[in-house]
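Bench log, entry 3. Co-assembly request; chain sequences pasted below exactly as received.
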Amino acid sequence: MDLLSLPFMQRALIAAVVTGLAAPAVGTYLVQRRLALMGDGLGHVAVTGVALGLVTGIAPTWTAVVVAVVGAVVLELIRERGHTNGDVALALLFYGGLAGGVLLTGIGGQSAARLQQFLFGSITTVSVADVIAVMVLAAVVVVICVGLSPQLFAVAQDQDFARVAGLRVRGYNMLIAVLAAVSVTVAMRTVGLLLVSALMVVPVATAQQVTRSFRTTLAAAMLLGTVASLGGLLIAAFPPGDVRIAPGPTIVLLALAGFALTWPLGAWLRHRHRLETPFAPGVNVDHELAGEHPHDHGDDCGHVAVRHGDHLDYVHDGHRHARHDEHYDEH
Amino acid sequence: MTTPAVPPPISLEDGAVALAGRPVLRGVDLTVHSGDFLALMGANGSGKSTLVRALTGLLPLTRGRLELFGTPIREFAQWRRLGFVPQRAGAASGVPASVWEVVASGRLTHRRLLRPLSRADRAAIDEAIEVVGLQDKTRDGVSQLSGGQQQRALIARALAGQPDLFFLDEPTAGVDLPNQVALAASLGRLKERGATVVLVAHELGPLAPLVDRSVVMRDGRVAHDGAALADHAVHQAGFGDVHEHHCDEPARPRRRDHLPDVTSPLDQPLDRRGRR
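Structure output for the full assembly:
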């Protein structure tokens, strides 16, 4: 555990924590607006930004922020004026970003390995200046996502309603796009640009397996993101055996493992909810007896009890049985 | 009629709206007075939803003058006086949201940035939920509600802002009869409070007794403006109260074009309501 006392490891841990908080915070709004893959696209665009930094000698964090924000604004404009999803237009921009990045790296004489540190994350490359930049950017993202959550929620939920409520819908849409671009840059040190979208989306998908409200989804996604980010980084730092792995894949796989564990629970909860949805109240025309019924239904008899008007129906074997004096009725 | 001292909630003169360059509404004059319960009726594609979207400022007028509460729409800023229930399939989105949260978002017109909900805000939200009768569903996710209950949640969202003027776009579409009755009861309470209501409806159903003025749209123009009409009268040429069956032929063939939606990524889509 000596590794944890090393300065570069501590910087990586800080970067992992703030990434885990910021990425799912923006991701929740992206998922709400059904733009789950937007983070992925901005990650691709940011590759060009990183390459620009590597070629010119400017810190890649800042060139990546600038290029990703420009990309986000362009995407938002295309989305606003173009097709409902504009997914083809987005794809054009994404692949342009990735190809441009790889080309620029080649022209600048940088090795592919240098670029790969940004594509899949790297523990050792986080400098002091980087960690400060990442903390500031992540703080901005989290403060806006949580502080403006009533407005951002309303805009993402129903744009027409938000506009008639006097909200500047366009500005808020742009804000989300820019925040997504910023959190992509925040996450590139730990998860890497190609996998950043997973940290924005997977914790949200995991959280909403069990949540029913927006605020709990947001909070749970941020918590899950932090756990996955920190856990994945530690796994990458202490790999079993003598291998070197980038933290990006371990973080994403850990987040996916969380989803895989939660999904059955969510499926069971939804199934349970469907079973227990009350039957529409109504008067049974016929008074039909359930016939031989040796079993006595009760609170913990094991059969699903469903509310039906003023009483409970016990559901078993395709029948709905309601207690009536000393016998059961078919409902 | 004498000029009222208080400007009417809605005053539209010679309004015209074009969607993607095609004139949809032409020459629409409409004044809605305080306390009116107005039903905007007409066949599909007659422009009734377009008119409401223009009245709420969602669609720009290509001609004419629109004033809300005496203020031209361009300068209008008293959004808290408006309540809007958009036409839509449901209230669900990509992330779960509870009924309370959806209704609470209707209170945004009264909230300033970065301020927590005040006690008055919470009271208004609770009251709005109570008016539509969803008290026992407050913590449930909206996507788990039935279509009619979702529609009531959206009405509660508009109510939470305590507006003076309501726009409801097809609130009864796809809602079963018991839920329509519940909805009518909620709107009845609004009417008792003296709210001004503009309701777009294909059919009024249980809402009919509440309506005291009908405006019928045909092909983008106002074809009737006056006393409340029964559902079957709307589609008759003379709006007479002839007791014919509702299933007679529509007064006009449908005029809506079928524009094939083959656009390149950067093209403007030709949505029938002009949405992007």
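The longest helix of chain A spans residues 247-276. The domain at 3-195 of chain A is CATH 1.10.3470.10 (ABC transporter involved in vitamin B12 uptake, BtuC).
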